[in-house]
Amino acid sequence: MNRYLPVARQHFLAALASTSVVVKSICAAVILLYLLSFAVDTVYGLGVTPGYLFPPNFWIWTLVTHSLAEKHVWDVAVSLATVVVAGRLLEPLWGALELLIFFVVVNVSVGLLGAFAYFLTYVASFHLSYLFDVRIHGMLGFLGGVLVALKQTMGDSTVLKVPQVRMKVVPMLLLLLLAVLRLTTLIESNVLASYGFGVLSSWVYLRFYQRHSRGRGDMSDHFAFATFFPEILQPVVGLVANLVHSILVKVKVCRKTVKRYDVGAPSSITISLPGTDPQDAERRRSLMVPLGADRTAHSQLRALIRPWLPFSASAACFLHTPHLRVTGKSAESVLRLGSLVRGKAAVAFLRPRGSGKALCFFLLLFCLSSSPFSWSDPCTI
């Protein structure tokens, strides 16, 4: 374990060096307040206490400072990693100022929503512990916001290969994990509340209020609220979310999405509608490029194999089947593939005689099965 710490520290310092002064300042504040916590109770003075946030105390500053206060070294590590990841992946897209705005909006929202939720819990139970014993602090709320932002920008990226986990499902998977840990009393309720309200507030900000070159918010289909849930629940969640959005539009909390027409190009008219964001369209277009390359490679390989098969019923089935596979018993001409590259094929053909036909035939099957092509994908000639 000790031999990996210097390597991890080196990578962390290298990543931190390439970030802006905003990220460096936040990391320095987290470390400084953690060191100060050995002398004074920083969580009490800087964390959000629901009973002290509301009148007559008005500890308003805790809405800004609660995310910087940590009690344990592993919490400090999670906070620093979250801020550095945001600086490396989000800051190049947004800029340092927008990242700072996002940091402030998410943390202030987590403090307000968390305090209000505990106040409602006190009203329902009349236990003063929900007002004066709870401390909302730490960077878990901002962690939820960063994961939501990564879902928006790189949702189709693969986080784990076995089992396959994509970035778009990570926010809800972590929320489910924290909920299970809370049911087993392994974590406190403020941890789950901070992360949950961080996910919610960051999605609302990115969906409706964030300013960018295309206007405000992101109304694309892949970032709808229902996409946070499993596909079987998405229709129901989408219906409820649309109903809530309609109510918020009527009370003027959210703005109604309008059609945008771009007639700047003299040769065409670009229409931008809700759910057809240009960024979403570009993302889907990029996903179709590998599929088109695979189909082209399949067609080229069939064109190369066609002259070397005898004209028979089995050869015709081989050439025109929608799934590329060897079906005929006749192997008069054998294809030996030295290497297969997507879109290109380097092939060498041999004409064996006698008992070598069977060996070459099995060699052909091995080459086809071990090639990088997706042989199960249908394609037409």
UniProtKB/TrEMBL annotation:
The keyword Transmembrane helix applies. The chain crosses the membrane at residues 12-36, 72-90, 99-124, 130-150, 170-187. Keywords: Membrane, Transmembrane, Transmembrane helix. GO terms for cellular component: Golgi apparatus; membrane. One of its GO terms (biological process) is retrograde vesicle-mediated transport, Golgi to endoplasmic reticulum. It is a multi-pass membrane protein. This is Transmembrane protein 115. It comes from Apteryx owenii (Little spotted kiwi).
